[in-house]
Amino acid sequence: MKVLVSGGAGYIGSHAMKELRRAGHEPIALDDLRLGHRAALLGAPLVQVAVQDRVAVEAALRSHRIDAVLHFAAYCYVGESVAQPGKYYANNVVGTLSLAEACIAAGVPVFVLSSSCATYGEPERIPIDEDTPQRPVNPYGRSKWMAEQLLGDLASANQGFRPVFLRYFNAAGCDPEGELGEDHSPETHLIPNAIDAALGRRKCLEVFGDDYPTPDGTCVRDYIHVVDLASAHILALEYASRGGEQRAFNLGNGLGFSVDQVIESVRRVSGADFEVAVKPRRPGDPPILVAAAERARRELGWRPNFADLDAIVRTAFEWSRRHPRGYGDRGDG
Known about the structure:
There is one protein chain. By secondary structure, the protein is of the alpha/beta class. The protein folds into two domains: 2-169 and 225-251, 3-Layer(aba) Sandwich (Rossmann fold); 190-221 and 254-332, Alpha-Beta Complex (UDP-galactose 4-epimerase, domain 1), CATH 3.90.25.10. It is built from ten helices and 14 strands. A seven-stranded parallel sheet has the order 3-2-1-4-5-6-11, sandwiched between helices. Strands 12-9-14 form a three-stranded mixed sheet. A two-stranded parallel ribbon has the order 7-10. Strand 5 (110-116), helix 5 and strand 6 form a beta-alpha-beta unit. The longest helix is centred in the first third of the chain and has 22 residues, at 85-106. It is globular and about 55 Å long. The mean pLDDT is 95.
């Protein structure tokens, strides 16, 4: 299949591009490179436009004869979404609507949305399955929930348009072959920041809150390797291409690790100690998010290959150690 990957030069999107090629598909990235990296494309074709540019996106879909879309392009920082909600609704909601309408106009039936466990908010039960009520507690989560709702409404109004929602938990790790990594500016994710502290690139690691109702007082999250996420997206597009119905799937390992446990994992993998500074809680951070992902295993045949936290951290550590400046292409966006 010819697959357009929005956000294909980003962290998860670039790993999906590589896995698509490995599976025999033909991926084409759609990315304006404001946040993505040209080097992460590994030479794959790029359509350099924003998802909000409906005319240009529809033209790209038609000219490349696209069969399916994987939609990763989104802002994803909870704290920033609280401070700048309009930015998140404009990009994550309006951008999704624009891309989806372009797909419908161009006759592209398969649309896989990179959604989030943030749509569940602070769930009443753990682990979280797909039937858990969606009650997002921050603008980021609400923007992903709105994207799901609008895609469902478009599917109801347009026969043949088949969206699939992948609600994944905390993406982590890097390409085990060392070609792709995680390179954000600024970096807000725990594992790469802890690795930077271990490598002496930052004075200390800041931890936001140690008074949550968890065993050690720090937030608990379900870390899923980025390559396992990428493989799930391929299975989802193949599911939809076979005529699979509109469906939501959680993607996680089903294992919860606290911030303190992640810090200890980075210390073990790196062999280095580092200072940790506890800061106040960030607004909008739920105490515990752990997935029940049996539906994806059962209906998509998805099997994560990275369940061990140290193994996930090791792939991130090795890439960061070998790429101290990330991709080194900040000029691209």
